[in-house]
Amino acid sequence: MAENRLLLDLFPWAPRPLIVLALFAAAVTVAVAVHSLVWAVFKRFFSARYPLLHDIGRRTHGITRFAVIMVSLGIAVPVAPLHPTVAEGANRALLAAFIVFLGWLAIVAANFLMDRYIDRFKLDVTDNLLARKAVTQVRLLKRAIGVVIVIVTASLALMSFDSVREFGVSLFASAGIAGIAVGLAARPLLENLFAGIQLAITQPIRLDDALIVEGEFGKVEEITSTYVVLKLWDWRRMIVPLSYFFDKPFQNWTRSSASLIGTVLVYVDYTAPVDQIRQKLTEIVKQSKLWDGQVVNLQVNNVTESVIELRALVSARNSGSVADLRAEVREKLVAYLQQELPWALPTSRQRSIAVEDPRPRRRVASA
Fold it and tell me: Which domain does 63 fall in, by range?
């Protein structure tokens, strides 16, 4: 490649590095100005009328600016008075930038399509099982796809330079022990990354699932590519690695349905009319807005020497509603027993039995 001396002839008084820097700075400035002008025109005439185009433009604002700068520099490099070796390095850098542009474009396109897909689902509805399933799957796949694209793009961009490619080949050929050490060090990260892909496919947990992990009750607030954030009942956050959900048992209260069955235990006397209490339970539950209309039942769960244990089963749409419904049923059943059946409340009984002494009495001789 021959050296372009046009600018050197036009500005013989300026140093070569200054001419090159000024040319590249002018190219970047013109590219940014053109991009800003086109973006302003786009927002002025298209954003308000076409929300979809506005969303696409907002998401691609950075990548289109990068593309315009890359094209501008691609025009400036042949004009710049560069040494052939430097010019070849600049062209390879532009090739690497083009590879980065393609990877960036792939990530933006994948994120846009996945976000448009999950926008159809609403998580704030009562029966959100399908929505939670779709959103969880798409978000995990989006992170996994993003990581894969970044790795592939960085590898291809670096391999566009001969020195880096040769270094990589020699590194793979001669550093087997170091590679094993790096692999062992990265094992937790890779475990969680593959666990994220497996979780997206099998879905043992989803967003907003109610879980019991390590004896703590909470809801799945966020699922990242390596860990899960649980929002506990007292608003604390528990951070759990993704691999935990494939290595250890846990409870998922909303695995197949958001509806749950709650239990209320009541202790009454042996003389309590169970059928009458059962009818009152049905009346209380049917009047509650929290009941989902599925399960209501009362059974004698256990008996002791002094009381009968009654177990009431009620169902609700989700974990929060079932907790509130249990509290309501417990409160109203106790009030009913106090007001209508006070004699059915547990009482303590004591019985005294006279027992005669079987031993013969001794007669005392009189003096």
Answer: 6-191
Structure tokens at 205: 């947990």
Q: Three-state secondary structure along 201-237?
A: HHCCCCCCCEEEECCEEEEEEEECCCEEEEEECCCCE
The answer to whether residue 58 scores a pLDDT higher than 80 is yes
User: Are both 170 and 277 inside the same structural domain?
Assistant: no
Q: How far apart are CA 66 and CA 245, in angstroms?
A: 41
Q: What is the pLDDT of residue 178?
A: 43
The residue behind tokens 């399933």 is 133
In this structure, the answer to whether residues 54 and 133 fall within a common structural domain is yes
Phi, psi angle pair for 345, to nearest 5°: -75, 155
With residue 363 as reference, give the H or E element that holds it: none
One domain, residues 98 and 130: yes
Whether the Cβ atoms of residue 329 and residue 273 lie closer than 8 Å to each other: no
Residue 277 domain-assigned (yes or no): yes
Rounded to the nearest integer, the mean pLDDT of the chain is 78
C-alpha distances in angstroms, 60 versus 224, 275, 362? 24, 68, 114
Which residues touch 327 (CB under 8 Å, ≥6 apart)? none
Q: Are residues 45 and 165 in the same domain?
A: yes
Structure tokens at 246: 């494939």
pLDDT tens digits, residue range 172-184?
444 444 444 444 4
